Every structure is written in C-alpha cells, then in structure tokens.
Amino acid sequence: MNFPRKINVKLDIGLILAAIVCFLIVLGILGVNIQASLAKTTNYTCSNATLKGPYGHYVIGTKGTEAPFVPYIVTRTATFDGKGHSYGHGFSNIAGTIKEYSVTATYHVNPDCTFKINNKALFEDGSGGMETQHFGVIVDSGRKIYGIHTSPGRTVSVYYERMN
User: Fold this and answer.
1) Strand partners for 81
2) Do residues 66 and 4 share a domain?
3) Are 57 and 133 part of one and the same domain?
4) Do the Cβ atoms of 124 and 102 come closer than 8 Å?
5) DSSP character string of 3-60
6) Looking at the DSSP assignment, which residues form a beta bridge with residue 58?
7) Which range of residues forms the domain containing residue 20?
8) pTM of this prediction?
C-alpha cells in the first residue's frame, strides 16, 4: 500500500515565504528602475521658447451644439515668437463659405509641454471675426502640436507642424 509522502509543513511554508520575499525584492528593484525610466521620459523642458518660428496649422471639426452641425475647416500659418505671441494668415471654410483671414494670438506653454492659445481672427472681407481658444500638447521637441478647440460650441481637432 502506498501512502502519500509526508509533508514537512514548516519547510514548505518557509520555502513559500522565501520565494515571496525574493519576488518582492525583484519587484522592488524593477519598480525602482521603471520609476527611474519614467522620471527620465517625463522630465519635460518646455516653455514659451519651445514654440518659435513658422508652423503650418490645420483645424477640422464642427460648429454647433445641436444638429445640424456645421462643418468647420481652417488652414493657415502660425508664426510663434517664443515669447507668448503668434500671428498668421489663412483660409476658413465654414459650411462651404470660404473666407480669407488673419489672426493674432497669445499663448502660454507649461513645463509639461501642454499649451493654451487665445486667437483673434479678422476676416479680410470686413465681415467681422472670431475668437477661439485651443489646448494642446507639444510633441517631437516642439515640431508638432496636437490639440482641441476649447471654445464653446465647437468639436474641433487642431494640428500644428513646424515648417522648417
């Protein structure tokens, strides 16, 4: 007759505890390394000076808070001075009506590479203008900005890319 082998409970629990301790030590070492890696990759160095020079700017989305929503497309230049001011020139297409316009803006870049910009556009035909706000994230060492309109009544994505 075969009997199950005798288990040394004290020894087995000791091995399990030792394995758990080793696992926690390894996890702690990996955790420190992961945190150090994350700290290196999230060590942002952005400021207003990150945005300097000419950019191409593209906006696409809709205007309105209820259907029917109005298609909204813009393309223009945006020249940043590195000190919180910008200007540009381009065209808008709002529901098929195309207008040429110029824009001046103020912006602020945060150390985490997010930014906000306040735009004041004037239509070249003298029909008025509009004010818009954007929130964005600066990527690729300042070469690109991905963002959204934060102006009420617009569902719009925003894109900037350095021209040189």
Assistant:
1) 52
2) no
3) yes
4) yes
5) PPPPP-HHHHHHHHHHHHHHHHHHHHHHHHHHHHHHHHHT-----GGGSEEEEEEEEE
6) 75, 159
7) 1-43
8) 0.72
